Structure formats: structure tokens, C-alpha cells
Amino acid sequence: MNIIEVKKLHKIYDQDTHPVHAVRGVDLNFKEGEFAAVVGPSGSGKTTFLNMLGGLDDPTEGEIMIDSVNINELSNRKKINFRMNHIGFVFQAYNLIPVLTAKENVEFIMHLQGRSKHDRELRTKELLEAVDLADKLNVRPNKLSGGQQQRVAVARALASKPKFILADEPTANLDSKSAANLLEIMEKLNREEHITFIFSTHDQRVVDKARRVITLDDGMIKSDVQV
């Protein structure tokens, strides 16, 4: 069953009368439980594509259907609510809130969802255990390594129980050991909880773990391979 359907997707940035066609007529579907990597050279459109999938950027043309909802037809408020309840994000720069502990960072989206304190604490404990950070609940980001911060970011992305995770260059700032640990955790979550992961990446370590590799170049799909 497709959880994401992308049809005739275009994105044009108008840069001082010199338009940049970042994504050109992309058609793609993603099924539940996929572990997919979107790859390509810098400027190929992969980050723009991921941002549109997550409703962070609007397409110039085309549509994105998630669970049969056309997210581009939603108002800004409804789009924010949809993202909060359906999509998890993991960014290259971690994007943790520096004044909050690991526990508070993971709980933050559940606060916005109106979940009870008991539910928040139980879910946060489960998630930080899942990413091997049960002993770092009350530690702030500046006291965590890069790999640990990215694992908190993964736990935070999972807090809302999303249908899928969008991960933009999640291993780019990590050493080999931290990257391998993070990918192992993501693979386990994908395998055991059937969470869909879609990566934008340059990292061969991520590509080697992916079961589907989609190559973009100049905003167009050059290949789409199940591996």
C-alpha cells in the first residue's frame, strides 16, 4: 500500500529573473516500511524534494498525497498539524533546543499534541532506551556528542508516532562509529516497528543500508532501484 504518492512534481525558485528549476516532473510512490535513499550530486534537488514531501516547501506544480491527503491543499495551520501528527524529521544540524534536556527535547512535540504527562514520560523513556540514551535523559545537547545528539533527534522524530521519517543528511556530521550506530538503530526501528525512512544523502554508508536507491540529477529521476 502506498503511503506517499508524488505526481508531476516541480519546484522553480525565481532568483532575480533567473529561475532555478530544482525539481522537474518527479513521479514517485513510497510504500509503508520502506528504507529508501534519495541520492545525487549537490544541486540535484534531493533536499528540495524531501522538504516538499514534508510540507516544509510548496511545489510550483504537482501534488503530494500522504494517506490520500493532498498536503498542498491544506491551509498553513492544517499543514502544521498534519506534519506534527504524520511526519518525523531528522536534520543534518540536529536542530535540538539547546536549553532543553534530551528528555525535554523528545517530549516537546508531545506537549504540542496535548498528550498527558504520563504518556509523554512513558513514550520518552521508551524512545531514549531505543536509541541507547536511557542514561542521558537530563543532559542538555551541549554535553552530548554529535552522535548522541543525532540519536536524540531520531527519538524526537519518533515521539509523535509518525507514519514516516524524513532524514536529510543525518550522518553528514558523524564519525564512522556514530554513523554506523545511528543507522543500526534506524534499521531496527524500520524492521521491528515498520517505520518508513526516506533519506536524502551523499553518504555511501547510508546508501549501502538502503533497500531502495533513487538517484536524482538536475531535478529529475535518473534511476530507481530496489536493492
Describe this structure in words.
The chain has 227 residues and is α/β, with parallel strands linked by helices. The protein has a single domain (35-45, 75-226), classed as Rossmann fold (3-Layer(aba) Sandwich), CATH 3.40.50. Helices cover 36% and strands 30% of the residues. The chain has seven helices and ten strands. Strands 6-7-8-3-9-10 form a six-stranded mixed sheet, sandwiched between helices. The protein has a four-stranded antiparallel sheet with strand order 2-1-4-5, covered by helices on one side. Helix 5 (146-158) runs parallel beside helix 6 (176-193). The radius of gyration is 17 Å and the shape is globular.
Q: Care to give the gist of this entry?
A:
This protein has 227 residues and is an alpha/beta fold.
Question: Which SSEs are present, and which pair or pack?
Answer:
Elements: E1 2-15, E2 18-31, E3 35-39, H1 46-53, E4 61-66, E5 69-70, H2 76-86, E6 87-91, H3 102-113, H4 117-130, H5 146-158, E7 164-168, H6 176-193, E8 196-200, H7 204-209, E9 212-217, E10 220-226
Parallel strand pairs: 3-8, 3-9, 6-7, 7-8
Antiparallel strand pairs: 1-2, 1-4, 4-5, 9-10
Helix pairs in contact: 3-4, 3-5, 4-5, 5-6
